[in-house]
Specification:
CATH superfamily: Glycosidases
CATH class: Alpha Beta
CATH topology: TIM Barrel
Number of strands: 12
Helix content: 25-40%
Structural class: alpha/beta
Shape: globular
Length: 410
């Protein structure tokens, strides 16, 4: 998929003032339009887990009723019946898991979301979603389709420079031969639901479709895992075929971060998916040829100032070694991106990148520190809690971003 040169802002619905669909969501769309932005990216919309994480949702299909602006709005029997017919693959499983009223809540969400999406499209703003590769243990999907998952192993990431024991995520992992025997229908239905809600979506942990880290379920940490083979291109080909997309036309961004091998790059490029680069991963003097350096960016990429797992730009800038800061400042000066504040200089640098799409975290436009980051991987107490105050995003912020965006040809 080819994305036109454009830019947008990442802000999860829970980070809106009030954390719901309603007037504040529409006000944010108005702000994006005033700021010259073409995209609004959220995190996954499913019910969050006990730690508020949307990446271990109880459903890969259902939206969280906590987003509803009008949770008591009437739902007619005809509306519910029509929803059941359109979403027959998954809605009964969700109802069995979540109980009475679950389907009506999905009708309410689709009603509110569709209205917001239409409002955004009228103002030139498209929506980007996020598709976690895994499902929650003992969630609705795991219970309804146990035949699609391996027994005895769970998900994780191998040891690396940041963690000598790796990361133990503990999600169920797919039994890909079993998924293949069912013609990848579960994944096709999941992509279909995603594309019903969003114009574009980031597919999380893309490298897991080539090979994934499988950890024995009784292991104390992820260092005991081993690599296992993923499905490769077949799962995407099945979705494109059954959903009516041409080759290379799936509206996805490949989250190709982490241990990226030539096989992962071949899969990404063979599917014609844009990959990701993250500005905060640049400027290491020991890795001058790394893909995240602005000098190494290219058009078929999506550049993020930081993802939901990163620090804010201000927090990052205050914590990096002087050698990194010198390199970052040199890149800023080369791009003519100097601003009064270092975080705005970095936003300006990101806007000037050759990458087709530039995504900025809203915290970085406000110059917020580490206390406002969305998530600290491995820590649960303070994560997923960031929320804007009413009026915190101002017309001045919008104008400053609009000027940068226009000058960058986005």
């Amino acid at each position: 998929m080819r994305i036109p040169r454009s830019s947008g802002v990442q802000l999860h619905l829970t980070s809106l003032p009030g954390g719901r669909l309603g007037p504040e969501a529409y006000s944010f769309v108005d702000w994006l339009q005033a700021a010259g932005q073409s995209w609004w990216q959220t995190l996954p919309l499913g019910p969050p887990d006990e730690y508020r994480s949307p990446y271990k949702s109880a459903s890969a299909f259902a939206a969280w009723n906590g987003f509803l602006a009008e949770p008591d709005a009437e739902v007619t029997p005809e509306e519910e019946a029509a929803f059941r017919e359109r979403h027959g693959f998954w809605v009964a499983d969700w109802e069995a898991y979540a109980g009475a009223g679950a389907v009506a809540d999905q009708v309410r969400f689709d009603r509110e979301w569709s209205a917001l999406r239409a409002y955004a499209q009228e103002r030139g703003v498209q929506l980007i979603g996020d598709v976690p590769i895994y499902v929650a243990p003992d969630g609705a999907d795991h219970r309804a389709h146990p035949e699609l998952f391996r027994e005895g192993v769970v998900s994780g990431a191998p040891p690396d420079a940041y963690s000598e024991k790796g990361q133990l995520w503990a999600n169920p992992v797919y039994d890909w031969p079993a998924v293949r025997r069912r013609r990848y229908r579960w994944w096709t239905e999941r992509f279909g639901r995603t594309f019903d809600l969003f114009d574009l979506a980031r597919i999380d942990h893309f490298r897991g479709f080539v090979s994934y880290w499988a950890v024995p379920e009784d292991a104390p940490d992820a260092s005991h895992g081993t690599w296992a083979r993923g499905p490769g291109k077949a799962v995407f080909d099945a979705a494109a075929r059954d959903l009516g997309y041409e080759a290379g036309g799936l509206p996805l961004i490949a989250e190709d971060l982490g241990v990226i091998t030539p096989a992962v790059e071949r899969l990404r490029d063979g599917l014609e998916l844009p990959g990701m680069v993250v500005l905060q991963f640049a400027f290491d003097p020991n890795d001058p040829d790394g893909p995240h350096w602005p000098k190494n960016h290219h058009e078929h990429q999506v550049l993020y100032t930081g993802t939901h797992d990163n620090d804010t730009l201000r927090g990052w800038w205050d914590s990096i070694p002087q050698s990194h800061r010198i390199n970052a400042q040199a890149a800023i000066e080369t791009a003519g991106a100097d601003e009064d504040e270092p975080w705005w200089s970095l936003v300006h640098l990101a806007q000037s990148s050759p990458a087709a799409l530039c995504m900025v975290q809203v915290q970085d436009l406000l110059g917020l520190g580490s206390e406002s980051r969305m998530n600290v991987p491995g820590e649960s107490g303070s994560s997923w809690r960031f929320q804007l105050e009413p009026g915190q995003l101002t017309d001045e912020h919008a104008e400053r971003l609009r000027v940068m965006t226009r000058e960058a040809g986005r």
